[in-house]
């Protein structure tokens, strides 16, 4: 069986205790807590092993700033209503950049503030996502070619 495209998917769950309030028709609701769950799915192209800890540390490091906070007092939620949709959209953009810097490509972020409702941002069908995966594949193939050529050159140098 030929594996032309091999990808490794990582799915990480994080839990945050965050408070927020919603303003509706100019009236501020009561500040209330949630244990928010975020499920982040990442893809890594190729056969290279990447420890869960690598991405887990990045994600936890980013999310820690929100732990036990009142979202409405933090940027951008001091200007943007901190609904599950807005929070997940924001985390999606921030995590996407962070993970790319470390070799991962964000597939999706799922956020929920109750066990029965989730909001999901998925990149699976976006042209930019597909281009990034193709780019990573090309880089990996180039790396393999460079490695093989270097090995051949080293073998030839040893023969002389």
In words, what does this structure look like?
Helix content is 39%, strand content 30%. By secondary structure, the chain is an alpha+beta fold. The strands form two sheets. A four-stranded antiparallel sheet has the order 1-4-5-6. It has a two-stranded antiparallel sheet with strand order 2-3. The chain is elongated, with a radius of gyration of 21 Å.
**Helix fraction bin:** 25-40%
The number of distinct β-strands equals 6
In round numbers, the mean pLDDT is 81
- Supply the number of helical segments: 3
Proportion of residues in β-strands: 25-35%
Overall morphology: elongated
The neighbouring-strand order within the major sheet is 1-4-5-6
Low-pLDDT parts are: none
What descriptive keywords fit this protein?
single chain; 3 helices; 39% helix; two-stranded antiparallel sheet; 160 residues; alpha+beta; four-stranded antiparallel sheet; elongated
Write the layout of secondary structure elements.
Layout: E1 7-20, E2 23-24, E3 27-28, E4 32-45, H1 52-63, H2 84-100, E5 105-114, E6 117-122, H3 127-159
Antiparallel strand pairs: 1-4, 2-3, 4-5, 5-6
């Amino acid at each position: 069986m030929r594996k032309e495209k091999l990808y490794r998917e990582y799915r990480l769950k994080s839990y945050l205790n965050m408070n927020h309030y919603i303003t509706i028709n100019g009236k501020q609701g009561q500040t209330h807590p949630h244990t928010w769950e975020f499920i982040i799915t990442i893809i890594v192209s190729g056969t290279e092993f990447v420890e869960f800890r690598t991405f887990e540390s990045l994600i936890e490091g980013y999310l820690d700033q929100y732990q036990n906070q009142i979202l409405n007092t933090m940027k951008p939620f001091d200007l943007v209503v901190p609904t599950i949709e807005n929070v997940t959209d924001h985390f999606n953009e921030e995590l996407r950049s962070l993970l790319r810097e470390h070799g991962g490509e964000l597939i999706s972020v799922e956020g929920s503030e109750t066990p029965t409702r989730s909001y999901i941002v998925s990149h699976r069908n976006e042209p930019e996502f597909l281009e990034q995966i193709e780019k990573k594949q090309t880089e990996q193939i180039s790396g393999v070619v460079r490695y093989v050529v270097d090995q051949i050159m080293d073998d030839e140098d040893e023969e002389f």
